[in-house]
Design goal:
about 190 residues, alpha/beta, seven-stranded mixed beta sheet, 8 helices, about 30% strand, globular, binds S-adenosylmethionine
């Protein structure tokens, strides 16, 4: 089932932001952000409520529309229907780039994440969070295709970050995420561009 169809049938996530993402981003001063594969915009809406200017990019017009409908008047969010495999994020243009639960085949995700990392300006932050490969064996939910799941080796690689010297990597690890049906295993990358 495609994403438009899923979003057309029912809300996929709660309106609440991802808890870990909110914990990490919460202390940052607002600036410009890009939410890559923003879905129904739970993070974009939360960021905008805290003064961020957000570009929310997703190829599901139905998902973005739902976010747009939930946005209060004056919310500083640009809803952009685009395929993130080809969308332009610019270079050094944002204070925060986030990619939550976007799962694509290896070469595609590495390319998307690399271009997302390039969009972060010096001093800005990159957050990547998604289902870890080990979620298949000791977690719950998420895609069941090993080839599209994250792991720390890929997220922290030069293929994603470019020169690792350009980054201060604050968190690169597996994290447990409690859910209603059990504990899920995610991969987290949280880094600041030097
Ligand atoms: C699991 S959802 C996560 C949504 C959001 N990041 C969140 O955490 O609430 C995955 C999202 O990726 C989007 N997506 C998948 N492939 C994409 C692509 N090639 N271009 C743009 N969006 C894509 C889907 O439409 C969907 O909204």
């Amino acid at each position: 089932m495609g994403w438009d169809e899923r979003y057309g049938q029912a809300r996929q996530w709660s309106e609440e932001p991802n808890r870990l993402a909110a914990e990490l981003i919460g202390p940052l001063p607002p600036g410009r952000a890009v939410d890559v594969a923003a879905g129904e915009g739970r993070m974009a809406l939360w960021l905008a409520a805290r003064g961020w200017h957000v570009s929310a990019v997703d190829f599901s017009a139905v998902g973005l529309k739902r976010g747009q409908q939930n946005a209060p008047a004056g919310a500083t969010i640009e809803w952009q229907v685009a395929d993130v495999r080809t969308a332009e994020f610019g270079e050094g243009t944002v204070d925060l780039a986030l990619v939550l639960y976007l799962h694509l085949p290896h070469d595609e995700i590495v390319d998307v994440l690399h271009r997302t990392a390039l969009a972060v300006r010096p001093g800005g932050h990159l957050l990547v969070l998604g289902h870890d490969r080990e979620n298949l064996t000791r977690g719950v939910g998420g895609p069941q295709d090993l080839d599209i799941l994250h792991d720390v080796a890929v997220l922290g690689s030069a293929a994603v970050l470019g020169d690792p010297e350009d980054w201060r990597i604050d968190r690169l690890e597996q994290v447990d995420r409690p859910t209603a049906t059990g504990t899920a295993v995610d991969t987290l990358l949280w880094a600041q561009r030097r």
